[in-house]
Write a structure and sequence with these properties.
By secondary structure, the protein is α/β, with parallel strands linked by helices. The chain has 20 helices and 20 strands.
Amino acid sequence: MDLIQAIKLYIIKMTEDCGPGMKVLLMDKATTSIVSAVFSQSEILQREVYLFEQLTSTSSSDSMYHMKCITFLRPTSENISLLCKELRNPRYGYYYIYFSNIISKTDIKTIAESDIQEVVREVQEYYADYLAVAPHLFSLNIPSCGQCLSWDPLQLTRCTQGIISVLLSLKKNPLIRFQASSKMSKQLAEKVKVIFSKEENLFNLKQGDIQPQLLILDRREDPVTPLLMPWSYQAMVHELLTINNNQVDLSHIEDIKPDLKKVLLCAEQDDLYKQNIYKNFGEIGEIMKSLIDDFKSKAKNHQKLDTISDMKAFVENYPQFKKMSSTVAKHVIIMEQLSNYVTKKNLLEVSELQQQIACDIQSSQHTQKIKELIEKGIPDEEASKLVMLYALKSFSKDSNRELTSLIQILKSKKVAEHWIELVHDVMKYQSKIILDNENTLKNAKQITKRFYKDLKGVDNIFTQHVPLMKELVEDLIKSRLKEEQYPFLSDINQPTKRVQDIIVFVIGGVTYEESMAIYNMNISNPQVRIILGGSTVHNSSSFLNEVKLATFGVIKSRGGSRKL
């Protein structure tokens, strides 16, 4: 199961279906991101695609009848309307139309009626309705799933479509399991099941002896992982600089070269990044030093042009040399920025304490250590996140008193009200799940133990915490995932066979740390193939934005939380 290859095969098929000749690729904003995540512009050019356009209401009126138009769109009502407008006044010779998901017969009829000049040669569904971030990771780029701890109907539909697209692109018809304590999880599972029934022919797929499993989880079951400072390269870049559609914005850096203001971080197009994506910060520093030394050596050799042979070697190696130069420059700048943030935000001390709180290590000292770091003047967001982590594991009366004390310290230090409000929001975000779980688990402390694991003998103090998702997937692989907590969406008793293909989807987003955990599990369990996806890929900032929106209209009560 390789998501990037699945998308690539669809795009290649599109370019082949319309035959040889000059082509234009007409896309919407979403499909532009989907294509650019797996193909570089030079790779697309090799497939005779010479023009890229977005379907908008202000599309160019220039006609190029000698070109074939490959139209790749999400099947939204807006896109259908714009496409019909395009077909009524076609700018290209022929149109080959591909939708990234299931399209209704009504929409197909509307398109046919708009094709007055009979320029449409093909209409197909190619199920590439998700962003393939890595071979094992996908995102739907949904920044927030709802409000009042409930679904936004539009986002429920979008998540359903995204999951359906992933399953069809991988040719999987899985058993569906969901998190029993989450209403949103069950609702999404039911929506997916409805599509299975409605599109029975599409899901009439041969699955072999072991049927795949789709596990739908809720981010609210583990709000801790997105709050922790990550130290692997990809996750760290996303946390401190933000990766948006495989791009990192460096324009805030003073006197930066124009070509480095926005850089591409894509494992498919950057071998250095691909090789070191899961290395930790210290390892990356050593690799960069070695790389710079190697680069200096090669640059020095290129200065020697004494003979014709030297000149010939320079000409032959120049493209590779230039590419290496830009790659080195990009990663050195990124590493410099990461290093600056680590120092400026005192992240080594902050992260160590985060891990101690998350893993419940030296718990009696947490309050005092948080106070000491706040007194040191760490940034508002880091101080607040420490208090959030403390709040998420506080259930006793003593802990509540300490939490009140910590919030008062934040206020006395003039921490922005926005951050103090987020402490309460995070508690509301988690507490409803805990309240629901009390029917199946003995008490809140049992739930806490699932979130925060005291790991002994761990060498790296900055990576002690294990995401809950990793434990759940491990339980699923070993057939130990409890059905009362993660039931099948079926009245039929499901066999407890071993699993082979697992697709995990997280409502409320995943993190790159969780992605790394799944990547490592795929390596250590070659008999199992695991795909991870979520409504988005979070860093702590985007996660807290989602928390703010998700808890809007919810007030704290003694019994947990309730809607206004």
